């Protein structure tokens, strides 16, 4: 431990000296108050003070400059609000963990605080506040950030074992940052997939008081480990205690969906949207579930909100337009649907993935208008674009395209896509269910079932054949076999995992080889990106770690 | 906009607006106080009366907004686990300049390493309100203290003034109906008390509820206000 000591000042005291060199951004639409803040900051000898009058300007400045402190008003007029600024800055990593972000509000805006369980500012300041209060807050936060510096470095390196050790060390030492450390420890335990430990930890924290974030963490653990009944009762309890915690609604809806209660999920999301309408992700999810429930009115409204709110946001997605377009087709307004798609074309010009989605949606509208020829052309345009993409499309878009191909009579291309999707995700029951649902929509349920089972049979046989070679001790042949399988199905996590496993067992016997190790690394990375929660991932990464020559734990 | 607007909503949005103006007023005054500090300006003392009244107005507005939320069933608390001494320090820093201007001394007392689960802004609001009253009623001393008492956190503000009038005293855990204590002549509407009770009661832990007590005597011989949080 403590290998980076040379960089850290021995006493983390916070004098005005510490504040003096800080770079500050003031985000406030009210000129008068901007000046007031500037005067206050100057009186702490801070000389680097930048200003932004709107959320857009703030994000723009954060993306090109590095600030130590951001004082951001919540209410910024018509564009982005303070919370959106924070979310975007964190999401796009315009600000670092060490950046102090303070939300300034006109009052105790509970709604805002409650909506923000996942993206929280470091602190809130309620207007009016005195110069002394601001100075003290800045000093306290600087000291706190300083004390968390090592931990945050470890978080950034994803060195979770060290994070936990450092957290425990500080938790036991009467620190002012206790609450932050406890929150962080819980989050890291989840990231580490130490679910039993995480659950026990949250239960223990809850013994100290009814902390919403601890209940929330517990609910998440139950959800991830598949205890949906347990998760449901935790999220419901959070809401009973405080009906403003919107994140709990989001997770409760997710839980209902997993349990197959789509109507209940929609109801919960509608409640959440009523409390906090300004949330693209939530509107989008509500649109999806309402569409699934064939509630076209709600779906149309939610997607329209998502489109509208997306105009100023980095969360803008082509799917908000295309989903809206599809609802409009289903509800019998294909002309309006085409208008929406025309807008989308303008918003996302030069984005081939968006063009594919837009063309697919267009084909559905044309189809509704009985313009068969236009519909066919639109789908083929999308299909041709797929080949020009550098990577693979997302599974959802692939399936939409396949469905449109079937609808416009190109069954051959449609089937090819479906087969690929099934074979790349053969152990994902939820996805296989979605594929079957598409065939049901197309009224070719039996044919669909056969296509799916044939595709599944092939991939299962492929995997089993490889495993058999491996178990029979034909390690060399097993490796060859799996390498070929991986080339054919690079998006299948099981095949990737088995290929990596065979390679690593071989190296355990015959010593590490750079070329083989490189391959194993590639396969494991793929598994990680396809499914970060893959059950055997930890075993694989541990094996991998031991194969790295001269495993060194270098520090600073 | 369609339909008739609810008067309560109009009231609330007006309050927000007024609070913004008040904020500017407060900060502008702070700057003036700062500038006049060394110049032996004759209105220097008057500034603090202004500051006291602005703070008083601000507390009233926060209280009204909270009561509005209560009326609309939107009142909720937002708890986290806080170091208690930090909260007390914050309150002291916010109020010290005003109290010192009248020669009032503040002392604080809080065990180190004491953490508790509560809504920081609501509880601070209650304490600041009481502290603001001390400016008017104490002789020359105020004491803010915190401690763990049984299963509760107690946060107490005591002074060495003449104490609270008899009708305002609240014994521990005793339920009161505040409506009858509204006194329009003195301007004391009992709402402050009601707000404090509301904040205390909103804090629950297992089967325990928070409460307040208002007594005379205490460590400094004057009034003693305590909020207990389970």
Which structural traits does this protein have?
heterodimer; A: 556 residues; mainly alpha; Rossmann fold; Serine Threonine Protein Phosphatase 5, Tetratricopeptide repeat; five-stranded parallel beta sheet; 28 helices; disordered C terminus; B: 230 residues; alpha+beta; Heat Shock Protein 90; 2 domains; five-stranded mixed beta sheet; two-stranded antiparallel sheet; 9 strands; 46% helix; globular
Question: How would you explain this protein's 3D organization?
Answer:
The complex is a heterodimer of chains A (556) and B (230). By secondary structure, chain A is mainly alpha-helical. Among the domains of chain A are: 16-147, Rossmann fold, CATH 3.40.50.2300; 148-192, no CATH class; 459-547, Serine Threonine Protein Phosphatase 5, Tetratricopeptide repeat (Alpha Horseshoe). Chain A contains 28 helices and 5 strands. Chain A has helices at 16-20, 31-43, 55-64, 82-91, 110-115, 131-147, 149-156, 160-171, 178-191, 195-206, 212-224, 228-241, 246-258, 262-275, 280-292, 296-310, 318-330, 334-347, 352-368, 372-388, 395-407, 411-424, 429-441, 445-471, 475-488, 493-510, 514-530, 537-547; strands at 23-27, 48-52, 69-73, 100-105, 123-126. In chain A, strands 2-1-3-4-5 form a 5-stranded parallel beta sheet, sandwiched between helices. In chain A, strand 3, helix 4 (82-91) and strand 4 form a beta-alpha-beta unit. Chain A starts with 15 loop residues before the first helix and ends in a 9-residue tail after the last helix. Mean pLDDT of chain A is 88; it is low at 1-14 and 551-556. Chain B contains 5 helices and 9 strands, in the order H-H-E-H-E-E-H-E-E-H-E-E-E-E. In chain B, a hairpin with a 2-residue loop joins strand 6 (204-205) and strand 7. Classes of the chains: A mainly alpha (556), B alpha+beta (230). Chain A binds chain B through residues 30, 32-33, 36, 39, 43, 106-108, 110, 113-114, 124, 126-133, 136-137, 140, 174, 176, 178-179, 182, 208-213, 242-244, and chain B through 16, 19-20, 22-28, 30-31, 34, 58, 62, 65-66, 69, 74, 76-83, 86, 89-90, 93-94, 96-97, 112-113, 115-117, 121-122, 125, 204-205.
